[in-house]
């Protein structure tokens, strides 16, 4: 199952024909540099090339009015003067004799992409299009957009394929007000947008872009706005909104199809957005959406005006669509104060609509409403110091030669696509000594030693990036865990995230020095967390309550994992009765975004049924959709919220409000010594 790439040079064949400072950034080179970068990196060759087509009038009329279409239809025959005048009725957009043709191709490209994904020709894909679409309204062009490509695509998917729920994720830095209007009262389309807002001072300066515009009538709750009231938002700010708002709601909603308004003006260096997120963040945003809707994801280009950053960001997105492991995001920290305020407001505005947000904090008491009316009383703007921003080029994303290695006892078949692994090399005597002395005192040595030495050899190959993921069935899971952790954490500067799922005992791992972070999901009665690096998550029904478990994964484990930034994820399945395959696969798939995709799964030899599903997830197949999530147990939602609050003094990516938390030093003696 491949990745579609849709591009046609024809869409570079229109441009601004007069002087307009607001429009001068929307240039044909946006498309050519993006495409060239994909070709030069070899990414284009790895995709399935799908041709564009023109959207039909019927397609366009699903979203736009007849009068508007008739107007645009005349533009190819207009004189320059007529074009200028036609343009004047709209905001921040220009027309050209060839733009109508290109706009039909852009919308048609979106439809071709939907067709390719919905018919199963490919798993996912990206369309590089001009003009963009998300600002365009039923009867108006706006913000460089002529037809609303994504809205047309969503309507088409619903009609042609009977898709019941569509999620539109708009990570462009502008508010796609056209998309919002189109689906405002429609509960079958969930629209999420973050956007530069600055209390309505930023274009398109609309009151309805604020967090409290949540949709209307039946569609109430299905429009999620996160307005940025300051510029310079960073990777942490974006990830935090994904973990604490978009993903929980998206999993609860359970889309059949994900459409992304993939604008890259939300990245560093962009003259419009003035944000500071780096291009590699799009690898993560993409990855985090790829286990929804069974992996059916269509990304449509919207904005992005710094050509260097645009090309890099497009490549990061396509790499991830193709299944290449994402680079480790550099220096994540807590979100900034303003981002937290936006997150806080949006979560509380939505808590009446989404069970996962039921215990979100009240609206902040600060004077948000008074900030709104500051519009108009111009405060002096700092002079535009067109400083050249520089950021490091994202590292090359080399996929290891071998994707998934398995260490299985005799009699267990090697799953398709995996490679059976056994250590060819003898372990060095020092390691053997250590193993026998520390771990193997009272076991049948030879057998255990051969499995453990295979495990260590496997971890070493993962460290060298020769193997991406691994899976091992072991007799003694505690011993295997200790062995891997000891080995991996002995490398300088390496950290291991250990995620244990199940009712078994977690062996004592060295969580003092911060080189191991253990998160243990179980149903044990409120086990206390011991220090900063051992975090038990005790859900009432363990993981047999799908919603509670998934929400804990999204809102606790992911942010912890991102902030910890491990070099290896060790996912351990202990006796985990009640855990269904789909949930386990979601967990596995989501964790692959960490540690450059290096996840090693350990399972009890007795539990062979999950081998196939686990292998499939480690190979990069999307997890199956879980169906719309029921409300999690109220106790569990409250518990997770509370745990997050308690831990957020130590782990800043767990914050969901700007209110300060007191350090958890009373229950945590160890982190102080290493702070
Ligand atoms: C698609 C897009 C931006 C329009 C900015 C107008 N449009 N000032 O990014
Ligand atoms: Zn934009």
Tell me about this structure.
- With 675 residues, the protein is α/β, with parallel strands linked by helices.
- It folds into 2 domains: 315 residues, Arginase, Chain A, CATH 3.40.800; 224 residues, Arginase, Chain A, CATH 3.40.800.20.
- Helices cover 36% and strands 13% of the residues.
- The strands form 2 sheets. Strands 2-1-3-8-7-4-5-6 form an 8-stranded parallel β-sheet, sandwiched between helices.
Strand order of the largest sheet: 2-1-3-8-7-4-5-6
Count of individual helical segments: 21
CATH class of the largest domain: Alpha Beta
Query: What would you give as the CATH superfamily of the largest domain?
Result: Histone deacetylase domain
CATH topology of the largest domain: Arginase, Chain A
Structural class, by secondary structure, is: alpha/beta
Most strands sheet: 8 strands, parallel
Provide the gyration radius in Å. 26 Å
| Percentage of residues in DSSP E strands | 5-15%
Number of strands: 16
CATH architecture group name of the largest domain: 3-Layer(aba) Sandwich
Low-pLDDT runs: 662-675
Q: Portion of residues in helices?
A: 25-40%
Any idea how many domains?
Answer: 2
From the N-terminal CA to the C-terminal CA, the straight-line distance is 46 Å
> Mean pLDDT score, rounded?
91
Q: Rough shape?
A: globular
Ligand species: N-(4-aminobutyl)acetamide, zinc ion
What quaternary form is this? single chain
